[in-house]
Description:
The complex is a heterodimer of chains A (276) and B (284).
Chain A: H1 3-19, H2 22-27, H3 29-50, H4 62-73, H5 76-109, H6 111-124, H7 133-139, H8 143-168, H9 172-180, H10 185-223, H11 228-237, H12 241-269
Chain B: E1 17-26, E2 33-43, E3 48-52, H1 59-67, E4 74-79, E5 82-86, E6 97-100, H2 112-122, H3 128-141, H4 157-169, E7 175-179, H5 187-204, E8 207-212, H6 215-221, E9 224-228, E10 235-240, H7 255-278
Parallel strand pairs in B: 3-8, 3-9, 6-7, 7-8
Antiparallel strand pairs in B: 1-2, 1-4, 4-5, 9-10
Helix pairs in contact in B: 2-3, 2-4, 4-5, 6-7
Amino acid sequence: MNADAIGSAIGRRTRSASARTSWATLTNVHALRGVAGVVGFIVLWQLGVLFHVPVLAKVPTPVDVAGAGWHVLHDPRYYVDWLISFKRVFIGFVLAQVIGVPLGLFMGWKAAFRYLTFPVLEVLRPIPPLAWVPLSILFWPTPESSIVFVLFLGAFFTVLINTVAGVRAIDERYVRAAISLGATPATVFRRIILPGALPAIGTGMAIGIGITWEVLVAAEIIAGRNGLGYLTWEAYVAGAVPTIIVGMVSIGIAGYLSSLLIRSVVARAMPWTRRT
Amino acid sequence: MASALIPPPGATAAGAISLRGVRKVYDSHGPAIVAVDDWTLEIASGEFVVVVGPSGCGKTTLLNGIAGFDPITGGEIVLDGKTIASASRSARPGADRIVVFQNGSLFPWKTVVDNVAYGPIVQRRMSRGQALREARSALARVGLGDVAEAYPRTLSSGVQRRVEMVRALINDPKVLLLDEPFRALDAIARSVMHEELLRLYDATRKTVFFITHDLDEAIFLADRVVVSTSRPARVKHVLRVDLPRPRTYLMMASREFLALKREVADAVHEEAENAFRLGEPELA
């Protein structure tokens, strides 16, 4: 699927969601199916545990988890964990965009610069963010900065690669048309390269935010003293199995909310991809 | 219709192009390929010239040379007495020679009116507000006022191409370079576009350099049809079309039109066979 198609799919979804009231969304047949899916999943889980389905035998039931969740919801530290994790993800993600997007645009635009930088980045890219954790702890002054750095890496290469690909996929016709109409190279960069690569950048962001949350848990386990990932780990250490699942579900919901946010921002930035 | 778009015919007696022994050799990948060789033609100011020839015969190479997108290897291209491209001088693209491309090149991320206002804005000829006003009124004059705020992808290919011509003409270029602009359109839309293009042409009398391999299109539009040989491209045959202007589609069934078509078809067919025998891959 090309970036444009993804962009327009994203645009369509957020548009239909924001165009209606929340009540209309609840009564929307697609939303109802989604709710039915969630309920069905929980029922299956409950039944699976009750009937001792092999893999699920030691898993707490949804009722146990809900009980633990109720308890956790009354603990103010839980909300602090949310805030802290969101803050880490936000900083790491934004830094990745601020550095990755301009670098990617420039790499895509100037072949000489791309040839210069590509080999280094291609060797660094396959190194999993978690493999950076030890070095990161050693070199960054605070645990906080090392966590943010690892999160940054998670999103950085994704957005970089997508941006480079987005620039290179821009049809030469647009560049030539702009030059023919009197645009200078700087104008071409700002008015053709940037908007032309935007759908791919949006795709990179949507994937990147997901990776950032994936990396968060491990980074917090290793270097953190708080956050949703640390909550999950702490529950494991304490043997509070239902709370582990509360932490996992919290991370899932946080990741989902983040991608919704990113998608709607991306769709807003690209009104031309909307279907009318 | 578009009379107020730009100065009336003859207001700027400019846009005479001399192609003198133009030669283009591609040798960056493997053996050298001579795409264009000793291509010579004088194009008068305000003349509508259509070049036809087999695919890959170097027509687009020639157009890119005039546009300034690609350097030429030999000969020279002169616009109004000024050499714009030669072996030693790389041409620079400029708003005096605007290209309308094969598959359309409206910027998808800009609305129609923003597309049309693009040239005046990036050339800093007008303020943004003024450019948008001009663009809107230019669109309204050719009956496109309703789509000014639409994004290109929501429009038919025919409307997109019309917008693209307005985007070019609003810059008052000396020359319009059209590279098979109607190739993607169906036959009916194409015939409407021909009449629209001729209306714009009659109103503005820009020099037009038009590439196609549709013979009907060539004769219907042109003052002169130039048949180019298969690679390397040379001028094989030049045919004057004396059908009166303004032209209507009914002329395509006239005896005179058919006689011209036969003459062009003979020349083109011979070249097509040569190209077929050579079996060379097409160049862009």
